[in-house]
Structures are given as structure tokens and as C-alpha cells.
Amino acid sequence: MRSPEPVRPRAYACYGWLAVAASVALVAPHLGPAGQQCAYALIGLGSAACVAAGVRLHRPARPVAWLLLAIAMVCGAAANTVWAVHVSLTAAPSLSAVDVLYFVMYPLLAAGLALLPERPAGSSRWAGTAEAGIVTCTGATLAWVGLYDPYILDADPSPPYSGAIAYPILDLLLVAMAVRLLVVQRRLRHTHAILLAMAVLLTAADVPYFLSVATGGPWSGPGWSVAAWLAAFALPGVAALHPATAAHPALPDPVGGGWRTAMLHGALVLVGPAATGYSLMQDAHRGDLDLYDFIVPLSATVLISLLLVVRMTNGQRQLQRHAMSLAVALDEQAALQESLRHLAEHDVLTGLPNRRLLEDRIAAGEPHGLVVLDLDGFQDVNDRLGHRAGDELLVMIAARLRGVLGPGDLLARTGGDEFAVLVPGTDRDVVATRADAVLETLRSPVEMCGYTLHVTASAGVRAADDMTERAHLLGDADMALNAAKAAGKDRVVWYDHTLRDRQTERIETVARLRLALGADEFAVYYQPIVDLGTSQTVAVEALVRWLPPGRPPIGPDRFIPAAEESGLIVALGEWVLRRACAEAATWHREHGVTLTVNVSPRQLTDDDFTAKVRRSLLDSGLPATALTLEITEGILVSAGTRSAQALDHLEALRADGIRIAVDDFGTGYSSLAYLRDLPIDTLKIDKSLMPADEDDHRQVALVRTVVDMARSLGLTTVAEGVETPFHATLLHTLGCDRAQGYHFARPMPAADLIARRVLLPHAHAV
Ligand SMILES: Nc1nc2c(ncn2[C@@H]2O[C@H](COP(=O)(O)OP(=O)(O)OP(=O)(O)O)[C@@H](O)[C@H]2O)c(=O)[nH]1
């Protein structure tokens, strides 16, 4: 059930004053002259006080207008007080100070009403004037034929001159101003309706008064007039106290007037002539026709017609103004819609079409070839030079790419550092040319923030024929792009179905890996690392193996990349570390053998990595000095925040006594700067550097160089892939410290390591 709307406290004062005034107005006609004059004074002054209170309370938009209304009420009260004195002194008042005060009161009221409307922005200063004029002329005609002609001009004998005969004309002024107020404001607020009621009540009081005085009635006026005057005097106070008086935003200029206005105008045009006709008939009947009986109403009717023409012209102008502003608004809306559409389909930074527009074009058009490219190492630019520089670089790259487009090509920015070029047609050569041009144009160095940046990108290309499924174009090209990244970046890879097969296999492998992790299908194998001087096993490298029950083992090369890509490597790496530490702790205690465990770059981005290593050591009892973590140079290839975090982990662990080895040295980047920047103790020489035989002088020289360099940096060297006695002897001769490989032992389960006594002294011959 809806609860009734609470009456706002401010409205109470308004209704309270209305109740008081109504009571006084009902009682006053029954009082004597003195009592009536008291009532006039009370209501007049009370109304002025209420106007002042209402202005304070509601802070209306036009306080001056309300001030004039209040002064008018004070004038009314003063006039009635003077009247009371006057009546007590003379029997029949003539034009006097009383009338002067009343004559001042009416223009003040009219001025208040004239100043009250809040004109809507853009509306004419003359708005409502024509309507007010029409009402005045019609009223004047009625006053002429109904009051002045029969009761003043044609009266015999003429009534004594009195101020009473002027009041209907003054009322006309008030009604006209009230009508103008309504026309200008366009909405009948309570405040305006109350003020209109005041003007109507005054007229309704003054006309009987006029008739009464003109026909020799009492000078104090008939009872109805007394009640109506009192009510009318109270109404400015009621209006001011009403909550609707508070300032409101102005309404917009409305269009046209509607059928009600048309009917009103029609009635106003007809009322004058109808009343005139009736009056002429009466005069003719009495044989009392005069020239002015025609001239006055006719002049008023002509004036009304002229005012109607003005009103119509104004209306037409107003319509034109509205039509123009409507046209402007429609234009603005169309422009806004266009800019919203542009925004939805374009990238804000580069102004290029975005992925949505690209997809729409692919879906809608002819067959296309597609080149998608992703900048290599863009995150480093953001990390090193800041996001703003990154943005600047993207804008420059967009400009360069625009320069290599062919006719009909669409260049889009599809993501952070990803762009795409849609090439119309099915010609593979055209697409190939575009892909090469795109990578080539990016290779020229970019000068930015005092640095010379060497930007490269990887590209995936999907050529299309008429049968190519358009929905797959983008996905296929993305797949080829991923392959280009995985293959070492800065290259173009074309899509073919083997990519999809491999991706499907990878997805399946990841799903199986996830299950295998929970099902304990992994084992750690160990490969001995031998001291080339003593031929003794000094360390073992832990290597993870996947042994699915009832199926052949799955090689690390098949599942480690999938584990890396899916992030499962973090959990798998932690499991290997814990298991290997637990098993190696005994070997270390009994044989002094240390443990080497591989760590993936992904693990080093784990915030908890240091804590996890420390917990593994603590739980297993393996001392920190007996553990070596093997990393690849790759962790430093991406400089910036990610590698900063990796370095923090390595430095913290090294401070604990853990040793750090760089694995696979000699492949990949092998920058000497990495050896300088990384906190490492050991260099593992990649097996690809092992010479085939003693005649392989270049490889021998290479290994010698690496060993010499490592020694000069104070690093221990471990050679990987030592498969022959020749390798072992050569490495020993070159001064390499340690070695591992099939020549000594293959990776084996922990049990075999013990059974084959691999950890005992002199188990291996160099
Ligand atoms: N300055 C800038 N950077 C962005 C904007 N949008 C995305 N990025 C960044 O661009 C990088 C793109 O990520 P990746 O492509 O994985 O980073 P990457 O270093 O290029 O890696 P690779 O593609 O593997 O070489 C992320 O670091 C985003 O934060 C952009 O509008 N402005």
C-alpha cells in the first residue's frame, strides 16, 4: 500500500494563512464599517508580512516582484485605514486620498505581476504581450458595453464622480498582467494560479462595487465585494508562502499553442463583437444610439485583430526558431553518432581501425590474406622508458606500417602491441610481400628519449583462397604468430594445418599434465656430474620424467614447453625441487654429493619462489651450500620488472649459500653482459659446442675460449653432452672443471644411482 505523501512543513504556513484569511473574509461582510476596516488592515498587513516571510523561506527567482506585491498590500491596508477615518468624518466620500492609495496599489500589483515571470532562455522579451493586449481589449469592450456605456454615459442623471468607476479598468490591467504571466511561464504553477485568482477576485469585487455605486448603493460596497476584496488581498501572501514559489529552472520554449489556445483566441475575437451587437440592439431599442457606441467597440475589435496578427506572426517566428534549433540538434546528434561509431571501431591511440572493424571487414568482404604482427619485447620499452614512450613508439610504428600498405589494404591495431594488415585477394605472393615489407620497415632503428631502439616484430600469415573459412582467418594467423614467437621472434611464419595439429596436441598435453600432477606420474632421474680431475661424482642433476602408467615415458621436450606455456611448470618445478632435495640429502650426508635442479624463468616470476626453496631445504635437511639452481640466460633477455624480480630471488638465495649455474651456455643469446649482470657461480657449456673430434678446430677453440673466460671470471665450468673419452680428455686438458654426459652416465632413477654405486669414488674413468 502506498503511504500518503507527507505534507511538506513549508506548506503549513501557506494553508494556515489561507484559513485565517478565508475566515476573516466570511465574517467581515457581517461586521460594521469599523470592523470591516479592521479586517482590511489586518489582511492587508498580514498579506504583506506573509509575502516577506515567503521570500525569506523560498528565495524565489524574482524577489523585486514580490516586494512590489508586498508594498501594494501595505498601500491597500493604508487606503482602508484612511477610508475608515474618512467615513467617520464625512458621509459620502469623493475622489480622495483613499482613491489615490488604491490607484497606487493597482499599478504596483500590475508591476509585480509584470516582473514575476522567469523568461525561458531564448524566448522573446515581448512574449505574452499580444495575449495580454487581446485580453485587455476584449475586457475593455465588455467593460464599455456592460458598464461604462449604460451606467455612466447613458445614465440619467449621471452618477456622482467617484474613484469607484476607475477600478474595473484597473482590474483589466491586473488580469492582463496575470494572463501574460501565465503565457510567459507556460506552466500553471500554484503560485501563478493563486495570483491569477487574486486578479479575478479583485475584478469580481470591483464590478459589483461599480454597479452598486453607479446605481446609488452603499459606499462601503455590497457584502460579496467585501468578502472578495479581503480574499484577494490575502492571496499574494498565500502565493508567496506556497512551496511552488521556490526558484525553478525555466522551461524550454514550447512549440505552438495547441487547440486550446486557438479556441481561446477564437472566443476572444467573438466576445467583443457579440457584446457590441447586443449593446447596439439595446441602444437601438431605446432609441439611444450614439457615434461612440460604434467607435469604441469597433476600435477595440480592430485592435484585437491586429494583436492576433502579431500573435500569429510571433508564433510563426517561434516555430521557425524551433525548426532551426531542431535541425541543428539533429545535425549534432548525427555528428555525435558518427563520432561514437568511429570511436567504437578505431583505436584511440593510433587512430587505426580496431579488431572489431577488422573482424567486420573479414566477415563482410571478399577473400583476404592476413598478416598479424606483434612487437618483440615491447614490454621492455614500457618498463625501461615508461608507458608514454611506449605509446609514442606505437604511434610511430603505426605511421611506418601505413607507409607499406598496398591499395585496398586495411591496417588495424588489434591489441596492445599487435597490428594486422588485411590484404585483399587470394594471391600468396602479395601477402608474402606485405609481410616482409612490414617486418622490414620496423627494423630501421627508432630514436627515442635519447636511446636508439631496435624494434623487431614477429608475424603470422594466413593466406586465403576462395574456400577459406573467414571465421578462422584471424585465429589461424594468430596461431602462426605464436609459432613465430616460439621459434625465436623477428620472423614470419605461415599458417599451415600442422600448426593447428600441434596446438591441439599441446592443449591435450596440458590437460593430461594437469591430471598427471595430481596422480603422481612424475619421477626424478639423476645424471651424475663428474669432477674431471678426480673422476669422482661430485654432483647430480635432477631431471624430471613423466612416466604415465601403462604407456611409454613422455620426453621432457614434449611436455616441458606445454608446462611452461600453461604455467603448470611452477607446480611441477616445486615438486621436483622438494623430491630431489629429499633424496639428495642422504647422498650429500654420506658422499658429499651436491644437487643441481633446473629452474624455469616462469618459476622466477613467482613471488614465493625464494620461500619455497628455503622450505624445501629445511624440510629435507639438505644444506643450502649443497644446492645449485640452474637457470637459462633467457631470464635476463626480458629486462625490466620481471627480470628484476628474478634477480632479487637469485641474489637472496645466493646469500643463503645456494649456488647459481647458467645452463646451456653457447646457445641463444650468450651475451657476455649477462655473465656480468647475473649473480652466478657456474657456467654450463652447452653440448652443441662439443667438437666431433680433434680435427674440429673451430669447436675446440670455442670451448677453450669459453673455459678461459669462465675461469677468468672465477666461475666453475661444467661441460654438458660429454659422450666420448675424447671429449673428457679434451675438456680436462682445456681446464674445464666438471662434466656430465653419456660418457659417464645417463640420467637414472635414484635407486639405480645407489645400485650402480655411481656415487662412490672412482666410479668413472676420464
Ligand atoms: N605503452 C603502451 N603499452 C601497452 C599498451 N597496450 C598494451 N601495452 C603493453 O604491451 C605489452 C604487450 O605484451 P607482450 O606482447 O606480452 O610483451 P612483449 O614484451 O612484446 O612480449 P613478446 O611479444 O613475447 O616479445 C604489455 O606489457 C602491455 O602492458 C598501450 O596502449 N601502450
Automatic annotation (TrEMBL):
Transmembrane segments: 12-32, 38-57, 64-85, 97-116, 128-145, 165-184, 193-211, 223-241, 262-280, 292-310
Domain EAL: from-to ranges: 506-761
E.C. numbers: 2.7.7.65, 3.1.4.52
GGDEF domain: residues covered: 366-497
SUPFAM superfamilies associated with the record: EAL domain-like, Nucleotide cyclase
Database matches in Pfam families: EAL, GGDEF
UniProt keyword list: Hydrolase, Membrane, Nucleotidyltransferase, Transferase, Transmembrane, Transmembrane helix
Any one GO molecular function term: diguanylate cyclase activity
Name of the protein: Bifunctional diguanylate cyclase/phosphodiesterase
